């Protein structure tokens, strides 16, 4: 047969299409230009090494908060294939609840500089707990009211509902809590900084706490998802909803559970945002929510480790990007979004993303 | 029984009422003397809706006893709950607790609106038990009223309602409405009705007129009548700017401009099915393109154009081209992203544009914006008045709508809609997804950019804040709430999103809350929007479906015979 | 030279080799059927041909042109059209529009000619409409009982399948890929469909590659049958040859015995 002859002479590995070559060429060009710019800036401006170290620590702090928030997006996306656009507002409301809890702590004298060590820690943890619970309730209500009735609808519909919910919550918060910024006051144990040896590099205690607390929370999440029965059920639902329900998994319960976890992490993230920025406003959650979502997409949405990696990358980009490119700090958001776009052009499913559209024929 | 659901709905109703009140919407205050009464009526309606919903979940009619028990339960729980909360807050305030550090709206006056006390009385802790009891009892009796009405509502009454809506009387009423509002508007503007402050009420009438035209055109299906009334409405619309004062025309031209933007987004989202959350960027590009090339203070005009800016008409051309190019440039990177990813990336584009407008100070003027944008002129005549801009906007709207209709009913429109329904299948029909998307982006963006030019002259001074994310969401909502894929829907949406805010000026933040809630509610109850494209209107499909059902029965009969035959003749 | 040829086509999803070194060809004016148990990789072959997936290895040619890895719309333009196992119509578009979309790549009208309704565009549209009507009339009264400006979702199941074929015909292909055209039809409709497929070749001159489970249909229409299992070709030849092949019998018995599961 003819095919036998061909085998001897031809190699049927698919060739790259010209459009793909052009795309990758363009990508490499941009990378080279960026590299050149960074090289110039770094060699000309001569920031001390400590500056870079401090900035990257800041990036890590930011990244940890983004990671907490991003996990909420990613978990929900993994199961419902929808963007919980209102997640940033869940974060913000958690932050507000934490603020009010903090006010109680202030009244009880736990926040003052001379408060005993134990109570000072309580003043850190109590608002976080309250924030987590508040966010959990908001996330559950959101799921029940704005998303559950839309399950099985066209994909755009829940997304639009989520956008509506986001603005509803955001401006509700503005009306309910008022326009005056709510200032977070740091408990004594979070004020000041820790110096790393005598290198001149230091890290604020708040930052250190945020990094450690995020790691602990994410470890707990990891154990929950990997080791417990409900975690396994959750992964089963993410894998194949129909199959899981055939196997006797209560899909509804799993979805609620997902929102609960997302809400808990968001609440913690909200309070940490408060400690970090020292101020809480009605729109405090929106941009970090967007960034965290960006992080989730960057890492490959629906993918838990991806969200963490994406968040750290985004945090670092924001902290280091403007200085590396020699741009004013206002451009950090522009850089963050540009990177998102850049990554999506070349890896539409994100860095660790898998599972291209499974609905195909 | 109606006790359990009654309690449930009571708690929900209490939740709604409580939420509204901490949002700062104690109806009594906003509505003045009639406030309490209005609250009672509002309440009766809420109870009514709850009862009907309960009944429908239970799938049976309630007896009078059940309805009354349910209604009383709902309203009592909510009424006494509210009274309790108000009493509690009053107590706290009297004790010197700063409740408003948490709930900013809960001031002594807030308590006073429920109890009828003055600020001082509340602060002094004067007992308001009787007032609160009265309030709770009022609510309860309103609930009783709702229950009685719900008892009267039956299934057949719903059908009767349906018949009534479809009756010839309603048909002619719907057609008459535009004329009524128009004449009313005219009479009001000319002072025939003798009222003094007519600006706002006139605007309301003008908006109602536009809405009524849209509804009437939808109702008239007969081709000849459509033509006749269509011409009548067009004539009325042409004369509309002559009636209004400057304020009314300013708002109306904003509505027309936002309609154009909405139609552009409608192409991208309603036809091509791409959720573009950064669409406002194209509007901004148009406005800034004209502003920066025309304003005498702009960097470009001073440094490169010798102080002479371009004219409005050149601006339109430039904006159309720049807009289309931007649409393509922003479009290329996102060709491969779908659905949700697309939404978030385009949101990123919108944010980037906004941030660049804000931060590229030398070029764009930064937060200071672009000032003194010249008005359009034609043969030396200044067309900067609200009235002329309204004419320009109406012409632009007509042109854009015409182009959109032609595009939609064409090879290109079909490829958009096919792509919206199923990208993969569209590709196997030979549709080049990339170009199809880019064409949609380019056209949608060009429309927005052209509208942006008009907006820039209308505003005279433009600022980055005019093009922030909030406006993007506004435009998105107006298209969705109006009805994706329908031009009438977009205009209706523009009336709601550009007109209402001017009417309810102080209530800006309440508006966003309300529209947010509306978006959620619409997605649940009527995702196709208020005025969806005609092919989705139910009454058209019904006869068609019936035909199909009939054929299916026919098919089924054939099947029976078939299986009987095969069963008899043999086995494999 | 055969009209259409796949050479050493391979595609894996993760660890699953869905199509494995598959080589076959279809001659001009031939009807070839692919059979095989569920999950054998038949639909994946269609997805590879129509450009939904890129093959990991192998080559696809039509009329001697290498079309491997081209985007779907170019493959359609070269002359391959397909239908789907789970009918995928544009349900919110009218019946007529569904078929007109099929004419997309055979018409040209750009943005400006559409907006201005140039005479050239009008003429082209009339021609497209005539072609669409011709394709719809292929099924006789079956699709004629409906008003053609109704949305496609009013159609009964069998008619949806017919409309899908009409839509594929409207792209004016050389090779028509039909994925289980008779699935879900009652016996009478099935026979009618088999007849239609024959007529597609005899009257309209299409070359056809069909996936089919119904052996009566396969036997009735095929010039040649290809049997697949686990992504591999296990037999090829006339209907009789293939159905008598022990490997094919085993593959089918295997599924019934439950040892073959797709998930
Ligand atoms: N996109 C995909 N991702 C992962 N696995 C896939 C994908 N598409 C198909 N598969 C797997 O490839 C194998 C072959 O699937 P395919 O749909 O081609 O089978 P088939 O022969 O058409 O079966 P059927 O008779 O049920 O239609 C199956 O095991 C299927 O699960
Ligand atoms: Mg298949």
Question: What would your notes on this structure say?
Answer:
The complex is a heterotrimer of chains A (361), B (572) and C (263). By secondary structure, chain A is an all-alpha fold. Chain A contains 13 helices and four strands. Chain A has a two-stranded antiparallel sheet. In chain A, strand 2 and strand 3 form a beta hairpin. In chain A, helix 4 packs across helix 11, helix 7 packs across helix 8 and helix 8 crosses helix 10. The N terminus and C terminus of chain A are likely disordered. Chain B has 572 residues and is mostly helical. Chain B is globular. Chain B folds into four domains: 158 residues, no CATH class; 78 residues, no CATH class; 220 residues, no CATH class; 33 residues, no CATH class. With 263 residues, chain C is of the alpha/beta class. Chain C folds into two domains: 170 residues, Rossmann fold, CATH 3.40.50.300; 83 residues, no CATH class. Helices cover 39% and strands 22% of the residues of chain C. A six-stranded mixed sheet of chain C has the order 6-7-8-3-9-10, with helices on both faces. The radius of gyration of chain C is 19 Å and the shape is globular. The C terminus of chain C is likely disordered. Classes of the chains: A mainly alpha (361), B mainly alpha (572), C alpha/beta (263). At the A-B interface, helix 6, helix 11 and helix 13 of A face helix 16, helix 22 and helix 24 of B. The complex binds adenosine-5'-triphosphate (ATP) and magnesium ion. Adenosine-5'-triphosphate (ATP) binds next to strand 2 and helix 1 of chain C.
Which SSEs are present, and which pair or pack?
The complex is a heterotrimer of chains A (361), B (572) and C (263).
Chain A: H1 2-9, H2 18-45, H3 49-80, H4 87-107, H5 117-147, H6 156-177, E1 182-183, E2 193-195, E3 202-204, H7 205-227, H8 229-239, H9 241-246, H10 251-277, E4 279-280, H11 286-299, H12 304-325, H13 332-346
Antiparallel strand pairs in A: 1-4, 2-3
Chain B: H1 3-22, H2 27-31, H3 35-58, H4 64-94, H5 108-115, H6 119-124, H7 129-152, H8 155-165, H9 168-189, H10 199-219, H11 223-243, H12 246-271, H13 280-294, H14 299-304, H15 312-331, H16 339-359, H17 361-364, E1 377-378, E2 381-382, H18 386-408, H19 411-421, H20 423-428, H21 433-459, H22 469-482, H23 487-503, H24 508-525, H25 538-569
Antiparallel strand pairs in B: 1-2
Helix pairs in contact in B: 1-3, 1-4, 3-4, 3-7, 4-5, 4-7, 9-10, 9-11, 10-12, 10-23, 12-18, 12-21, 12-22, 12-23, 13-15, 13-21, 15-21, 18-21, 19-21, 22-23
Chain C: E1 4-13, E2 16-26, E3 31-35, H1 42-49, E4 57-62, E5 65-66, H2 72-78, E6 80-82, H3 95-102, H4 111-116, H5 119-137, H6 157-170, E7 175-179, H7 187-202, E8 207-211, H8 215-221, E9 224-229, E10 232-237, H9 239-244, H10 246-257
Parallel strand pairs in C: 3-8, 3-9, 6-7, 7-8
Antiparallel strand pairs in C: 1-2, 1-4, 4-5, 9-10
The complex binds adenosine-5'-triphosphate and magnesium ion.
